[in-house]
Amino acid sequence: MELGDKIRSLRLKQKISIEQLSLITGLSKGLISQIERDITGPSVASLWKISKALNVTMNYFFDEYDDFNQVVKKDERKKIMMKNGDRTYELLCPNLKNQIEMLWIEIEPNESNSEELISHEGEECGVVIEGTLRVLSGDKIYDLEQGDSIYLDSTIPHRYINTGDVKSVSVWAMVPPSF
Predict the structure, then answer these.
(1) Are 113 and 138 in contact (CB under 8 A)?
(2) How many CA atoms lie within 13 A of 159 on its CB side?
(3) N or C end of the chain: which has fewer CB within 10 A?
């Protein structure tokens, strides 16, 4: 089932109209409709708002496997692609039912993980594998290069931006899982 179908199905199951979901999330009715029809992919911030409004974790929309396998092959990772493929998230751990979440994040040049600062429970630590990454955390700005790592208190609003000329690749650990 596609992401949009899952959102629509859950919204209808909870007897919430697009208008009501729009009011709860602050997203436009048009955007919600486009997301549900898989015309556009939601930003991380938008999907976060939708999941909170529908009382599920973001994991609800992606975790489809009940079998636990300790090894996740590169070509079998669960992928979340956003906004025409300019941001890709790949789950490095088998599922999000345990106490840590590991993500492989690719962000194209001049793009970010979200249009706005987001915050959530917990902590996260990331390392830049390729390219560069600007991290905004509260009122601070950190410019990271290949090999640099950063620790964040996830309750402080933050976002990642690729200000470089090449794709940024980073690996992140989050506790507790936030997707």
Answers:
(1) no
(2) 17
(3) N
